[in-house]
Amino acid sequence: MSARRITTAIAVALLGAALVYPLYFALAASLMPEEELFGGSRFPSRLVIDHYRALFAGDTLWRPLGNSFLVALSTTASCIVIGTPCAYAIARLRFPGRNAVVGAILTVSMFPQISIVSPLYLLLRTLGLIDSYPGLVLPYLTFAMPLAVWLLAGTLRELPPWLEEAALVDGATRFRALLYVVVPMALPGIATTAILTFIYAYNEFLFALSFTVGPEHQTLPVAIALLRGRYQIPWGEVMAASLMASLPVMLLVLAFQRRIARSLSPGARSRR
Amino acid sequence: MRVDRQIWLGAALAAAFALSGCGPAQPESETVLVFPGSSVGAEAELLTRQLRRFEALHAGVRVVVLPTPDAADERHQLYVQWLNAKTPDPDVLQVDVIWTPEFAAAGWLRPLDGAVADAADFFPATLEAHRHAGHLYAVPWFADVAMLYYRSDLVAHAPRTYDELAALAERPGTTRGYVWQGARYEGLVAVFSEVLGAFGGNIVDGAGNVSVDAPEAVRALTFLKTTIGRASPERVLSFREEQTRYAFQNGEALFMRNWPYALPLLEDRAKSKVAGRVAIAPLPSMPGGQPTATLGGSALAINARSDHPDQAKQLIEFLTAPEQMLERAAALNQLPPRQSSYHDPRLSAALGRPLAPLRRIVETARPRPATPYWSELSRILQVHLHRALTAQEPESSALHAAAREMRAVLTETQARPSRAALLFTHGAALVLALGSGWLLWRAGKRRARSRPPVRGERGLAWMLMAPALAVVGGFAAFPLVYTFYESLHARDLRTPWRGHPFVGLENYAALLESARFWGAFGRTALFAALSVTFELILGLSVALLLDRSFRGRGIARATALLPWAIPTVVTALIWRLLFEAQPGSETAWLTDPIRAWVPLLLADIWKTTPFVALLLLSGLSTLDPRLDEAARMDGAGFLQRLRYVTLPGIRRALLVALVFRTLDAFRVFDLVYVLTGGGPGTATEPLALFTFSVLLENLRFGLGSALSVLIFITGFALALVYTRLLSRDGEAI
Questions:
Q1: Contact flag A242-B241 (C-beta cutoff 8 Å)
Q2: How does residue B222 score in pLDDT terms, banded at 50, 70 and 90?
Q3: Which of B39, B245, B369, B406 would disulfide-bridge B204, Cβ 3.0–4.6 Å?
């Protein structure tokens, strides 16, 4: 038994190292002088905060960070507001075309985003939405919606139907039942869905790269990817920015790890 | 029911409110000029200083700097997106010498004839680059001219020929080697065109014909190829300007090809190991050719849609006046494009060296071919040059392929696909149409047999779903249909005057005949297969590990989600730096067509394995431990229990992981875009990246749409297979 414990301990240590090392490396790179980094060093001989100072002083972090939050939060809010009723209909109501709707939504979640970049670009250009916040939120909504509806439908299906049935018997309409009975009960599931939607929108790159044209509306991933000098990449600053950008989602994940893991595994849940 | 409607109306309004971003208000009393410029370092400081002086001279005009990346190719893409979106901002554009004809031909720039009072003062080559169809479209701002740097303490005099240069660089010694820009980007084409000039050839000949398949070109490329691993380290194949400078500055090279900006940095005693031991010379030549240096540098132009063309013109006049150019030379060592400056003792003082040799270097400068299609021609050449240099293609066939593709671009008609290809595509389209029709018919039949729906809930259901369906339909379904429509037309956004005629399936046929398409297709499949296999195996191991009980399991599980949560762009950057920050080591990961896959796969595995593990872990947690225990009692070994108890038990979780991962891997974009850019050559270019380059870099919307449709069909087919697998597994999704 103790042999098993030792192998477990070694395996866990190896796993931990593999998971954390790249993050450690990013941190070290953001804190050491550039000559040293390109000299092959992995353990800084002295720490410098120049990269962070440069980052915080300029506009390279704050504006995109604000954009990212605004876009991700708008996407999340809209997605929940629009997605919950849709999920409810799919989870609880029986109507012709239900399978078609589920199929259509699933299809959207599966198809490659690159395949609609060009028409979306033309559509947004016609609407005058290139390089605007709605110009990002609307496409994000489209791609976040399927996952959100899927997760929400799963959550709603798990709720005991007799509570809303009771409300219906008491004379409430389906709407009221949904709003006052179902939604409050489903709040934990809705919150998890919101977190996942937020992470998706916050991390998205292709649309943000294609539909924004300047730092005014650029989101963080794009800003970081484009953070370059005329002839070089300021790696120290890039790593500092990368870590700052990852911080919010890392905190979210650490705080809600259990929920996220659970909601992502529908197979397990439906059998529990 | 009425109350409910109101609630929904309110919700819809709230959503709309959440959506409507609020633009910043503009002050109206003054004219605001938007000027995209550098936001980092000495360049930004200088620009701010000069703009403040301009504002002091012109009351009522304010110049706002729009920070843009300095790297030329990224700036180019940004400009194309801006100008193509027809925004009046920015007013003044900072264009590289090679962009002017392209932008002018697209009607994006305002002619500047007469804006330069003393045109004769500029070096003719610098002005020539900015003319298109007889008009001047941009005013030269500074000239970049490639030159040869060498170690004056180790080399007696600058080599006159490339052979001499290679021989000296190969000479055994502690410091040896010749470093140049060999990454797959515009710089590589510049280096190549210099060697080509030295060998007596050119990219486009005097009559405007592509001549990169001439014998001189093959000799020039063969020369570059043979330096690799001998006169030049293998690493140059990933070098841009700064990596070459670092190598030279750290004393790791004898010779370097670079622009003037490097000089003051190399002479900086605090940071450079070679300060005081650096000399410059014109680039070498070969018998039968002449010394050739690429003319680089920037010019200033006005956005054709600018609301303030007059003020923009004033700004350009101010920034291109001799005084400002001198200041720029002093601060950044960027050379003035004006001839008179080279008689000005102040320039000599600012640069800290005599002017005569500099002037000689500037006079060797040759502009690259002035054609609106240069960006696209150059990208074709970059790909083939890099493929040849990384030994993916023999020199001669690489150049012939490049010439063929470049000619196809220049003849303005896309290469006509062959009859066989057209026949094949039409046949395939027919089969697809019939096949999907049959599937639909079958699906319809099956649904008719299912339970009768409840009538009363129908209206309600549709109402509940309406907003979601509207969004998904409007921004996914409609664009998809539109993509299909576009794919049947020839449409090139850079040449709007050609309209977009219907061409049937020609775009598809062209793709099916293109080697780059099939290459990208194969690589996508390979990437998906490799990454998913590794991730499932590793993910299962990790899941089995995390399923055991040990102290700190909660922390381990939480940590495992971190790589999954951080933005892919960040993952890609970290892994790229991990493999790039290894000087001295000759293992050049990112320049080897095979080894470049390692960082790519590692990054993807690092990011996604934990996610797969968690999916499988929750599958494991539903298993009845007694089953495993019973098997163990019966004497089943670990592998047997895995095979007969564990795996069947988590079959569904495995399937879900497989579906998610394959579809994700199939559309991989961010990771590759940031980590390898698809390089070296096209060695790691997947479909999504190829599409992106066709669509948004070359703006060929017809061809790009056809590509999109093909990707969609493949992805859809995969999805269909998977949904069937999943639903056969028993549960509806």
A1: no
A2: very high
A3: B369
The pair of structure tokens assigned to B642 is 């895995």
Report the pLDDT value the prediction gives residue B567, as an integer from 0 to 100.
93
pLDDT at B90 over 70: yes
**pLDDT of amino acid B572:** 93
Task: Please give the share of chain B, as a percent, with pLDDT higher than 90.
Answer: 22
Whether residue A109 sits in one domain with residue A36: no
**A6 contact B CB<8A:** no
- Is there a single domain that holds both residue A120 and residue A255? yes
Strand partners, B255: B150, B178
Q: How confident is the model at residue B8 (pLDDT cuts 50, 70, 90)?
A: very low
Pairing label, strands B278-281, B135-136: unpaired
pLDDT of residue B25: 40
The residue behind tokens 């593990």 is: B613
Across the interface, whether the CB atoms of B465 and A38 are under 8 A apart is answered no
Domain range for A127: 57-271
pTM: 0.73
Interface of A with B in 176-205 (CB under 8 A): 176, 179, 199, 202-203, 205
Residue window 669-728, chain B: list those with CB within 8 Å of chain A: 669-670, 673-674, 687-688, 691-692, 695-696, 701, 704-705, 708-709, 711-712, 715-716, 718-719, 723
Phi, psi of B507 (to 5 degrees): -60, -45
Report in angstroms the alpha-carbon separations of B602 from A40, A239, B3, B473: 20, 19, 56, 37
Please state, for a pLDDT cut of 70, what percent of chain A lies above it.
93
Question: Which of B16-20, B399-403, B539-543 has the least mean pLDDT?
Answer: B16-20
Q: How is residue B21 written in tokens?
A: 């971003």
Set of chain A residues whose Cβ sits within 8 Å of the Cβ of B703: none
pLDDT at position A182 is: 86
For B284, phi then psi, to 5°, come to -70, 180
Name chain A contacts of B711, Cβ cutoff 8 Å.
112, 114-115
For the segment A103-124, the average pLDDT, to the nearest whole number, is 78
Q: How far is CA B39 from CA A54, A58, A71, B67, in A?
A: 11, 8, 24, 5
CB contact under 8 A, B566 and A249: yes
Rounded to 5°, the CA angle B609-B611-B612 comes to: 65
The CATH number of residue A153's host domain is 1.10.3720.10
Work out how many domains chain A is built from and give that number: 2
Assess whether A83 and A20 both reside in one domain: no
DSSP string, B242-261: HHHHHHHHTT--SEEEE-TT
Which one-letter DSSP state was computed for residue B690? H
What is the distance in angstroms between the CA of the first residue and the CA of the last residue of chain B?
A: 31
Q: What is the pLDDT of residues B457-471, one digit of tens each?
A: 778 888 888 888 888
Same domain, yes or no: A102 and A29: no
- Residue of chain A nearest B90, judged by CA positions: A214
Tokens representing residue B358 in the block: 């500099």
Residues A66, A30 share a domain: no
**With bands split at pLDDT 50, 70 and 90, how would you rate the model's confidence at B453?**
very low
Q: Looking at this predicted complex, what is its ipTM? A: 0.92
| Residues A32, A100 within the same domain | no
The pLDDT value given to residue B671: 93
Asked if pLDDT for residue B3 goes beyond 60, the answer is: no
Could you tell me if B391 and B595 are in contact, meaning their C-beta atoms sit under 8 angstroms apart? no
The answer on A260 and A232 residing in a single domain is yes
B265 contact A CB<8A: no
